[in-house]
Amino acid sequence: MDRSPPGRGGWRGCCADPGTEGGLMRLHRVQALGPNGLTEPRDVDLPVDHADVDATGLVLSPGWCDLHAHLREPGFPEKETLATGAAAAAAGGFTQVVAMANTQPVTDTADRLRANLARARDLPVRVMFVGALTEGLEGRRPTDAVALQAAGAVALSDDGRHALDLQTLVGALQHASATGLPVLIHPQDESLGSQPEAELAAVEQAVAALRQVPRARLHLQHVSLAAALPMIAKAKRDGLALTAEVTPHHLWLTEDALRRWGPLAKVNPPLRTEADVAALRGALIDGTIDIVATDHAPHQAAAKRDAETAAPGISGFETAAGMLLTLRLPWPVLYRACVALPRAILGIPLSPDWILIDPAETWAVEPDRFLSRGRNTPMTGTRLSGRVRITICHDRVVHHAEVPVG
């Protein structure tokens, strides 16, 4: 029987070839996730020093990649640190994570980006960084995109601030296009508040800017409205280099969650209607929306107490996989949206990392057990079906969930 690791022989396209040095971890009767879905059960050896695992009923997937997370360091260690965020990401099955630039100080220079990479060197998962699109995230002067790329930036974004005006966005896209880096846009016209028109106007403007700089690459973050989908689909049909993401909470929760959970359900963009949720799920399946990203946004409890002043955001790393698996999305869609396309957008290869998923395990969300410092979630008590059991990164097990009893 062929027990080649994913990436060899019949496993080609599932995972990168990790080599065979060191110990071996044998997974017995595991199904592997690849572009076409799940394989038949078989034994697989991975080059990891760990005891063998009876993987009957379990799924071996390449590590997931999260294109949108707020890790809060430097500047806000009370909310999250790189270490706690990375631990939470590992628990959620994310072996590659992209941290936004809205830290203190803002990641808007090559020196600051290099400092962030130095801090992230010994983390259990691979943390990458975007560089700010404009200096100080102020929406005026573009940053030195070439220097940021040379320092290691994987994308450019002013996320944490709202959409730029058309002229500034066109200028920023022109600067970014010299590097080939994707520009990640928070599509919300802040002059229109949180109304649906705010997102629609920003998406329309982003597409208009991309038409003026067609060699640029533009990515729309956390799309939340059904009405935005036709604009995205048309831009793609027209050949523009446009991609889009949706969050697990916009695939799962509606505006009704605000009545039950109050500030814990306050996110930006806000939760929408049942019709929007249904349309977003369909758009993810048909490819209008390319990827799922968590927009992991940890906050302290005090920041979520008052409805008027509450900070927007959900601690998303540790519930994302369970939410997506509970939705029973097709396995090829999960591979595309969580494994392949996030990396393709960034232009990075598939790393030799894996996660072992139990798609049948049911569990209740308990924020007090989160590894993230942010316990802010409207999912408390929700029963989910599907969980990451083991996460492997840097050739070692970096997360091993408790096996349920009974």
Which CATH C-level class of the largest domain is it? Alpha Beta
Discrete helix count: 11
What would the average pLDDT be, to the nearest integer? 93
Write the H/E string, N to C. Answer: EEEEEEHEHEHEHEHEHEHHHEHHEEE
Number of strands: 16
Share of residues in helices: 25-40%
- Sketch the major β-sheet: 8 strands, mixed
Strand content: 15-25%
What shape does the CA trace take?
Answer: globular
* CATH fold group of the largest domain: TIM Barrel
User: What ranges have pLDDT less than 50 throughout 5 or more consecutive residues?
Assistant: 1-20
| Radius of gyration (Å) | 20 Å
Brief write-up:
Helices cover 29% and strands 20% of the residues. It is α/β, with parallel strands linked by helices and 406 residues long.
Describe the structure.
- With 406 residues, this protein is of the alpha/beta class.
- It has two domains: 99 residues, Roll (Urease, subunit C, domain 1); 287 residues, Metal-dependent hydrolases (TIM Barrel).
- The chain has eleven helices and 16 strands.
- Strands 1, 2, 3, 4, 5, 14, 15 and 16 form an eight-stranded mixed β-sheet that branches. It has a five-stranded parallel β-sheet with strand order 9-10-11-12-13. The protein has a three-stranded parallel β-sheet with strand order 6-7-8.
- Helix 2 links the parallel strand 7 and strand 8.
- Helix 2 runs parallel beside helix 3 and helix 4 crosses helix 5.
- The radius of gyration is 20 Å and the shape is globular.
